[in-house]
């Protein structure tokens, strides 16, 4: 088995918080290869009434199995053996006739799903404690509930499209780990594009999350995530929200979301580096209730409320020439016992709807005011560094 030399979630990032080392060790996946045994290969032609389920029972279960699938297969598929590849030849559709079942239910390990269109079902793909699963160049659409759900185990999605799910596009439960790469697209789902909870870990390199009815990405209860080079746009409840968890957002576009662009809540940690955060309907970036937000080299502009807000014992650190401009409210808002630390590399806040830096109380503190360029409200000028 061949491993990557460098985890995707650290490529091009500053890895500001130590927890990202833990995240990356969780979501490093080895490229899935078949074991040394020779693969057993069968063709399943659903237009000739062949069955994937029948083919999965063929051969020696101790050896790898490859099924080349043709046509539209109107069945639910259970994969409970290891070393299985289902691949379209050249492309195939799996569409169960009963929307209360899981279209593909996986409990084996070393599973490859390639060139498949998965339509309907309660869940499109369910990974249950699966180890080393890959879904590549697949689409999942029109499910009653989540498009893809992981319950423990780990998986990799490459160039996948998930759309029009009745629940979340992707749901990660109970220490699941998932890497998403390639031109993956998660859109039009009735809840959040991605939902991660219960100490799950996510790495997304490239791709887009857009036009979902919930958040672009919703992280809570110890979840950790890394987004690098992603586009998170036009989601109905906001871009990224992390509560009691950790997130890194690097060199991404966070735009046009109908709420906060990036929000860290309830003791969460957020590292936000080198992004364009623009046109979101509320704050571009917000830290609230004991959150820690560290920002470097971001352009934060044209958001509906503040460019950056830090509220209720939040800690905010800004540097690397941050440019905060054209937001409808103040460029930076600091209030209710929060702390702002300005690095020597500084921040520029200009052409916003009110102050460049607005402070709402004398309990909040600012360090490094000499590194700030912009207008400041009176309470800010009275703080000691």
Task: From the structure above, extract its key features.
385 residues; mainly beta; 2 domains; 26-stranded parallel sheet; 3 helices; 5% helix; 46% strand; elongated; disordered N terminus
Structure, explained:
The chain has 2 domains: 2-33 and 115-381; 34-114. The chain contains 3 helices and 41 strands. The strands form 3 sheets. It has a 26-stranded parallel sheet that branches. A 13-stranded parallel sheet has the order 5-7-9-12-15-18-21-24-27-30-33-36-39. Strands 1-2 form a two-stranded antiparallel ribbon. The radius of gyration is 23 Å and the shape is elongated. Residues 1-34 have low confidence and may be disordered.
The overall strand count is 41
Tell me what portion of residues adopts beta-strand conformation.
over 45%
The radius of gyration is 23 Å
Uncertain runs with pLDDT below 50, 5 residues or more? 1-34
Oligomer: single chain
Tertiary shape: elongated
Short note summarizing the structure:
The chain has three helices and 41 strands. The protein is mainly β. The longest helix has 9 residues, at 19-27.
Strand and helix layout:
Layout: E1 2-3, H1 19-27, E2 30-31, E3 40-45, H2 52-56, E4 65-73, E5 77-79, E6 84-94, E7 102-106, E8 111-119, E9 123-128, E10 133-136, E11 139-141, E12 148-151, E13 154-158, E14 161-163, E15 170-173, E16 177-181, E17 185-187, E18 194-196, E19 201-205, E20 208-210, E21 217-220, E22 224-228, E23 231-233, E24 240-243, E25 246-250, E26 253-255, E27 262-265, E28 269-273, E29 276-278, E30 285-288, E31 292-296, E32 299-301, E33 308-311, E34 315-319, E35 322-325, E36 332-335, E37 339-342, E38 347-350, E39 357-359, E40 365-367, E41 372-373, H3 378-381
Parallel strand pairs: 3-4, 4-6, 5-7, 6-8, 7-9, 8-10, 8-11, 9-12, 10-13, 11-14, 12-15, 13-16, 14-17, 15-18, 16-19, 17-20, 18-21, 19-22, 20-23, 21-24, 22-25, 23-26, 24-27, 25-28, 26-29, 27-30, 28-31, 29-32, 30-33, 31-34, 32-35, 33-36, 34-37, 35-38, 36-39, 37-40, 38-41
Antiparallel strand pairs: 1-2
